[in-house]
Model the fold of this input.
Amino acid sequence: MNTVFDMPIKHGNLLKVKFILSVFLFLMVLTTSSSQEESFNLDSLFLQTIPNKSYSKSSGPLVYIDKGHNNYHTLQDRFKPFGELLEYDGYKVDELEDISSLNQNQPKVLVIANAISETNVSDWNSPILQAFSEREIDTIVTWVKNGGSLLLIADHFPFPEAISNLSKAFGFTSSNSFVIKKESKKGWYSYTKHEKTLTTIGTEIIGKPKLDSIMSFTGHCFKIENKSAISVFDLNNDYMAILPKKYTNNGSEDIVMISDLTDWSQGAVATFGKGKVAFFAEAAMFTTQLYGKDKVPMGFNAPLAKNNTVFIQGILKWLTN
Done:
C-alpha cells in the first residue's frame, strides 16, 4: 500500500486519501491538546538573556491584544508570556475586547491570535464559522489603511478558517490545515537560511538580517495574493499539509492533503495603505508552553528556538516604525 510520501502526485494537487494517514492527524492532536499544555510566566533570568531592549520601560508604543473573539491565546493565559516579553522590551500592552473602539484608543499595533467563533469554541469540527463580522473586518481594514499595524496569527485547524475572511481582506488565502515536515513526520521544525526556508529579504525587512533559524510548531499554510507582501517563511516540497474535516481520529473520515507546499508560506509581512500587516500561521513560536507530562519547553523557551525572541522583537519594531 502506498503512503502519502510515495504516491505519484503532481505539484500542488489536492488528494483525497483514507484515514490510513490519520496517524499524522492523531499526532497533531496529541501535540496541540489543551489538556497537555501549560502556559507559564517568564522568569527574570530568562528575560535577562534578551539583548538590546527596544525601548526603556513603558516608553514604547501601545500594543493591544484581542480578547473579544473567544481567542485561544489571550494576555491572561496562553499569550501571557508574549505580553511579558513585550513589556520587558518597553511596550505598553493592554487588551482589546471591542473592535469598534480601535479608532478611539489609538493603539499602534493590534494583535489577533487564534480567534474563533462562539459556535466552535467547544466544537472544532466543520463547519468552522467566521470569528469576525463583516463590520469588524471593515473597521480593521480601514484602521490599517489609515496607519495602524496588525499582527494576525492563526495556528493550525480550525483557526485558519475562523479568520479566513479577515486574512483574505489583506491578501492572504489560508488552508484550514496542519503542516508537518515529511522527513520527520512531525510538526516541530526550524526555518533556516541554509534550507532557504527563512528568507533573507524577510529578515532584512524586520531589521534582523543575521538571524539564521526560527523554530515553528505545526501551524497552517497560506497563499500570498497581496503583491506588496514578502514571505518570511517559505515552505517547499519537504513539507505537506493535512486538511481534516474533524479534530478527531476515528479511522473513518476522508481527509484532504496538499503534498507539495512549494509556493506556500507560513509567515509574511506587507504594507497596506499607510499601515502594515504581519500574518503568521503558527502561534506557539510567539509564546511559551510546557508540553506533556515531562513539561517539554514548547515555544520561544525551547532550546532550538533561541532566535525566536529576537525575531519577535524585529516583527514588533517593524510594525511600530
About this structure: The domain at 14-320 is CATH 3.40.50.880 (Rossmann fold). Confidence is low (pLDDT under 50) at residues 1-23, 30-36. The two ends are 54 Å apart (CA to CA).
